[in-house]
Amino acid sequence: MKIDILTLFPNMFNGVFEESIIKKAIDNEKVTINIYNFRDYTNDPHNKVDDTPYGGGAGMVLSCQPIFDCVESLKEKDTKVILLTPSGIPYKQKMAYDLSKEKHLIIICGHYEGFDERILSICDLEISIGDYVLTGGEIPAMVLTDSIVRLIPGVINEMSHLEDSFNENYLLDYPTYTKPREYRGMEVPEVLISGDHKKISEWRYNESLKKTKERRPDLLNRGDRNV
Ligand code: ADE
Q1: Most CB atoms within 10 A, among 6, 14, 132, 171?
Q2: Which of 109, 128, 131, 144 is the best mutation target for the ligand 1 pocket, counting ligand atoms within 8 Å of the beta carbon and taking the most?
Q3: Atom 4 of ligand 1 has which residue's CA nearest to it?
Q4: 146 CB burial (10 A radius; 0-12, 13-18, 19+)
Q5: Residue 227 resides in a domain
Q6: 157 C-alpha to center of ligand 1: Å?
Q7: Does any domain span residue 147?
Q8: What is the pLDDT of residues 161-219, one digit of tens each?
Q9: Residue 85 Cα: closest atom of ligand 1
Q10: What is the whole-number distance in angstroms between the Cα of residue 113 and the centre of ligand 1?
Q11: Same domain for 122 and 173?
Q12: Which pTM does this prediction carry?
């Protein structure tokens, strides 16, 4: 897979993909991640990428030309173009799964007061990572990239993401423990040391259910099993 990220702040990505699982995925050629500064694509003599909004109002609006030209120069036959914006559709694990099957993603990081609405005409998806407003789409682009790359086959053990929270069963993760058996008076639950795998599975399921009921009852009532 190839992921091209379009941003005005490429330095924000320094180091982010140079550690741990994403670095390994890049080293193992499971993914190529390129960062483009779309200011490099502006035709404006002063390197401008934005302008004041028609109709008035605060702030600056990202202009069409640099983003159109940048996207058009990168787009291939099977490219999915994603725009990150707080008014996009809410990002979910199912979307990460679907996007992990794509060949090429272009992710556009919005900034300032927003972007010219005509930019949507070259985008396939508008995504929000949550109901809060960040200073720009860079951190959301990191979130998307991380959540997608870990799902590319061969990047991590398939079993570990089959057990992720937010998968088909919509249950949050059960509690896990490692050695020692007792730490500062806190004991590992007896059942996990029993060696009885049926009992362990039942315990884990019940703990997941309990945690989900307490923290995210909304997940239990969802009929939309694919979203
Ligand atoms: N840009 C600013 N806030 C955002 C959000 N919550 N999701 C996606 N892009 C954003």
Answers
A1: 6
A2: 128
A3: 86
A4: middle
A5: no
A6: 30
A7: yes
A8: 766 767 656 899 999 999 999 999 999 999 999 999 999 999 999 999 999 999 999 99
A9: 9
A10: 12
A11: no
A12: 0.92
